[in-house]
Design goal:
The structure holds 2 protein chains of 2 kinds. Chain A is an alpha/beta fold. Chain A has 3 domains: about 160 residues, P-loop containing nucleotide triphosphate hydrolases (Rossmann fold, 3-Layer(aba) Sandwich), CATH 3.40.50; about 70 residues, no CATH class; about 35 residues, no CATH class. Chain A contains 11 helices and 10 strands. Chain A has a 6-stranded mixed beta sheet, with helices on both faces. Chain B contains 11 helices and no strands. In chain B, α1 packs antiparallel against α6. The chains are: A alpha/beta, B mainly alpha. The interface between A and B is medium-sized, with 26 and 20 residues.
């Protein structure tokens, strides 16, 4: 469990970035931290693996206070995937990139080989095992960065803007992969502006604005609340906007994803509220 | 590891007698310190060169950031000392080489903290340096803070993967920096290629004769700084050739390893 207790933070000689934050993310939970640029989202997740330490209050990971632990100790439990993969890739080969952290954590070579092979397969990267990560496309590099963290099987996985630079297919794969991690009872926290992605995944949404939590709850409740959306410079998911505009169909509130929208429209078709157009009509 | 020492090379707009100086005068002053640091191998002379910069730093009101840059250079200063000792240089000379490093670093920290990239570009242009070269130089200066942010992010990313920079013996510690340097170099190359493409797309270099709305004019204080620098340099040359300097004696030497 990750818990944040009355935590405040500011960079040296800088203004307050986070003020009096209280938060609890349970084991196996899937949460999305959203908010406007500069709201303090990335700063907050950097607290989870001890890269930043609170100026006031405390952050606990599985009951251990992060200010009492080194980044290396906390990283064993908390895997943080940075926004830009180019900030971490350096090895000659993709498999070397994956093995790097395992060697840092002292795994033996047999385990390293097994884990690297498994992760390359899971993320569809086997064919690039001996390629240089620098010759891969942006999306592929992002996947390598993801694999390089997941390879040591951290209990809590934190992803900073995981959907940036990903095409639709890759986003869909990422969504399935996250769901798979959640089903393995891993805590997954994503930092994102991508409302469409959040609408499809429907995690718990923690909305930050100017360093404070302004809302915390179900994605369907937060992403359809105009005031909150405006306050945090987000936009309503397109499906939710469409349902708002089709008020004559009397859509219930809370339809924000394509699956729910399809089910709703099917039901309306069945009841004859909407007429199917004749073939060729 | 914090890269806050880069603050010591970053310009911050302030009002001080040093900030108001012409960039050319400050550049000549910096070159004066640089030349005298290279001229001497005597530790006392190098200490004087270093200490002589302190009044300027105080007048520029940049003591905190200057100290931070000195602290940031401590690792490299110690590295220079250790490597010289390992390769057979005497302890006194090794100390002098480290002192020289700090004197040079201090001079450039002082210059970049008090001179804006715009002023620097203007000074270069007025010195008839081709615009493309002046632009390259000022862009490099402007990119230092951005590179520092990138470097900090890379350090954070690798620490999040279990890398402990301060762990192990000296060789291991040096090796620990490879995962930091490679992403930094790659991203710098990528950034420069993108910048070049963006500049070309915006017709960079389309006209040969550029004009400037502002021109730099030397004031009495600037001329005083230039005259003072040249005179001090002349004294330094005289001292170097004709005046025997006291030498520091340490009655102990490490055994030669190589």
């Amino acid at each position: 469990m990750i818990s944040v207790e009355n935590m405040s933070f500011n960079y040296p000689n800088g203004p307050d970035v986070l003020h009096g934050l209280n938060l609890r993310i349970n084991d196996g939970e899937f949460a999305a931290i959203m908010g406007e640029n500069g709201a303090g989202k990335t700063t907050l997740v950097k607290m989870f693996n001890g890269l930043l330490k609170p100026v006031q209050g405390r952050v606990l990971v599985d009951g251990e206070e992060t200010s009492q632990r080194s980044v290396a100790q906390l990283s064993r439990k908390v895997g943080l995937i940075f926004q830009n993969p180019d900030h971490q890739l350096f090895a000659e080969t993709v498999e070397g990139e994956l093995a790097f952290s395992l060697r840092n954590f002292g795994f033996n070579e047999d385990v390293i080989h097994r884990r690297v092979t498994n992760l390359l397969t899971a993320l569809d990267l086997e064919r690039y095992a001996t390629s240089s990560p620098f010759v891969l496309s942006g999306g592929e590099r992002k996947r390598v960065a993801l694999a390089a963290i997941l390879v040591w099987d951290p209990k809590h996985v934190i992803m900073d803007e995981p959907t940036i630079g990903q095409d639709y297919l890759q986003k869909d794969r990422l969504r399935h992969f996250i769901m798979q991690l959640v089903s393995q009872e891993k805590t997954v926290v994503i930092v994102t502006h991508d409302v469409e992605f959040v609408a499809e995944c429907k995690p718990r949404v923690i909305l930050l604005s100017k360093g404070k939590v302004i809302a915390d709850g179900r994605a369907v409740d937060i992403l359809t609340n105009r005031d909150l959306i405006e306050q945090s410079s987000l936009a309503m998911p397109q499906i939710a906007s469409l349902m708002n505009n089709l008020s004559d169909l009397q859509a219930p509130p809370g339809i924000i994803d394509t699956y729910s929208a399809r089910e709703f429209l099917r039901e309306r078709l069945r009841r004859g509220v909407i007429m199917r157009s004749p073939p060729g009509g | 590891m914090s890269l806050r020492f880069v603050e010591g090379f970053k310009f911050k707009r302030m009002d001080s007698p040093i900030h108001r100086l012409d960039p050319r005068a400050k550049f000549i002053l910096t070159l004066g310190f640089f030349a005298s640091s290279l001229m001497f191998t005597n530790i006392y002379a190098l200490m004087i060169v270093f200490v002589a910069q302190v009044p300027g730093v105080l007048m520029a009101k940049t003591v905190g950031r200057w100290l931070r840059s000195m602290r940031g250079g401590l690792f490299l200063g110690v590295f220079i000392f250790v490597m010289n000792v390992i390769f057979g240089t005497s302890i006194v000379s090794s100390l002098a080489f480290s002192m020289r490093f700090f004197a040079i670093m201090s001079a450039f920290s002082f210059f970049f903290m008090t001179t804006s990239a715009d002023d620097l570009g203007l000074a270069l242009e007025q010195a008839h340096v081709p615009y493309s070269i002046a632009f390259t130089f000022t862009t490099a200066v402007r990119l230092v803070p951005t590179m520092a942010i990138d470097a900090q992010t890379v350090v954070d990313a690798q620490r999040s993967r279990g890398l402990e920079l301060d762990k192990g013996n000296l060789m291991k510690r040096i090796k620990n920096y490879i995962p930091i340097l490679i992403p930094l170099i790659i991203s710098a190359i990528r950034r420069s290629v993108e910048l070049a493409e963006a500049l070309e797309s915006r017709a960079f270099g389309a006209t040969d004769n550029r004009t400037s709305i502002t021109t730099l004019k030397m004031k009495a204080a600037d001329i005083a700084v230039i005259v003072g620098t040249i005179s001090s340099l002349a004294v330094a040359v005289y001292v170097y050739f004709y005046l025997p300097l006291p030498t520091l004696v340490i009655p102990f030497e490490f055994p030669r390893l190589f």
